Amino acid sequence: MSAPRTLYAKLWDSHVIEDKGDGFALLYVDGHLLDEHSSAQAFDGLRASRRAVRRPKASLAVVDHNAPIVGDGNAQSLVQIAALERNARAFGVPVFSIGDPRQGISHVVGPEQGFILPGMTVVVGDSHASTHGALAALPFGIGTSEIEHVLASQTLIARRSSTMRITIEGGFPSGVSAKDLAMAIVGLIGTAGGNGSIIEYAGEAVRRMSMEARMTLSNMAIEAGAQAGLIAPDETTFRYLQGRPFAPQPPAWEQAIGFWRGLSSDPGAHFDREIVFDAGGLAPQVTWGTSPQDVISVDDCVPDPAHEPSLDRRRAMLRSLDYMGLRPGVPLVGTRIDKVFIGSCTNGRIEDLRAAASITRGHKLAPDVRGLVVPGSGLVKLQAEHEGLDRIFIAAGYEWRQPGCSMCLAMNEDRLQPGERCASTSNRNFEGRQGAGGRTHLMSPAMAAAAGLRGCIADVRGLAR
């Protein structure tokens, strides 16, 4: 009998075409998500070498990073969008562009369409490919030269990763969400804690999560340095996928489920590292610095670098505090904000908008606070409008925008001005991430909504209905 295998080993082994030695292998790629900001050079390379796309229908192109969230967008963005449309038509790749109700952020659209399925290998020209591990797909965030290679050959050379299992026990306390859990894990193991690893999330808390919450958790595995955050498929996964456009239809559906049920780590499978995390004592999380690992519970105070034994870490903390305009030992609650951003591939799904709307309903944004709500896809936007969530946000003073990446990475005109402070549901808070000199505090959709109402960082547990 063969030795017990992890979910990652099963996904890897089933896609190896050729073992290259030293841990490298040529893998078959099942699915490829393309966008306008990383694909143009790859298509130009195909033209220069007179090569075709090997399997056009195994790719799906979307407009996300440069999508004009309001108005027509800037000239550079429009050039990139037009190039994607032209390249997709020329090479036979399906494309969801501006005006298509299915358009949106690749990491939202792929699962939403059933284009990402358990057992697949999937590549995306974006690091948050990690999201798709929530569906028990093995994702790779790749660069331009690799995009060209995948388009031409439907293969990828990759190096086998080490494995880490994070078992999450307990239930979520009131006011706590998957975003809080994801941030707390990054804070626990650090942004390099998962380097060279594939994380598998397991435990009762994960099994009780919705599919959208799982995607939030897997999305931020990359912030801990991991390539992916895998979650074994179960009935929640199957219910989410059933009937989606690209998902198998009967009788292939029943056959697919039979295969998917085998995609879990075997009892006794070896992981290189094991961590157990109790979600029962978790509080809402907020970042205070300029790294996703600079995170504390909302009811804690800003940490003091003087208590940090590592000189390098102490220096990094001092730089972060200076950039963020914060002082050690001061509570984050009450820190004034200028903007609220609700959206991104982390928190732009319908459940995220519902959570923010539940806090916002019947209230107004604080004076001098500007709020943006950016759905993760056109279908999310339509669903939210069907449920009346747009009216809740608009009545509160928010701007209800078109789908795309928006202020997550300061695209088009959606950006912070120097010194402005943002309560953001995105995934990164590096210096200048949301605009040169802008200060980003990462938090959950409910926490961001609470900050918008109070005009400062606030504990949503005091507002939750």
Descriptive terms for the model:
alpha/beta; Aconitase, Domain 2; Aconitase, domain 3; 16 helices; 32% helix; globular
Explain how this protein is built:
The chain has three domains: 154 residues, Aconitase, domain 3 (2-Layer Sandwich); 88 residues, Aconitase, Domain 2; 178 residues, Aconitase, domain 3. It has 16 helices and 19 strands. Helix 6 links the parallel strand 9 and strand 10.
What's the pLDDT, averaged over the residues?
96
What is the CA–CA distance across the termini? Answer: 54 Å
Global outline:
globular
Number of domains: 3
Question: How do the strands line up in the largest sheet?
Answer: 5-4-3-6-7
User: Number of DSSP helices?
Assistant: 16
Task: Show unreliable segments.
Answer: none
Helix content: 25-40%
CATH C-level label of the largest domain: Alpha Beta
Name the beta content range.
15-25%
What would you call the structural class? alpha/beta
Total beta strand runs: 19
Query: What fold name stands as the CATH topology of the largest domain?
Result: Aconitase, domain 3
Please identify, by name, the CATH architecture of the largest domain.
Answer: 2-Layer Sandwich
CATH superfamily of the largest domain: Aconitase, domain 3
* Structural Rg: 21 Å
Could you give a short account of the major beta sheet? 5 strands, parallel
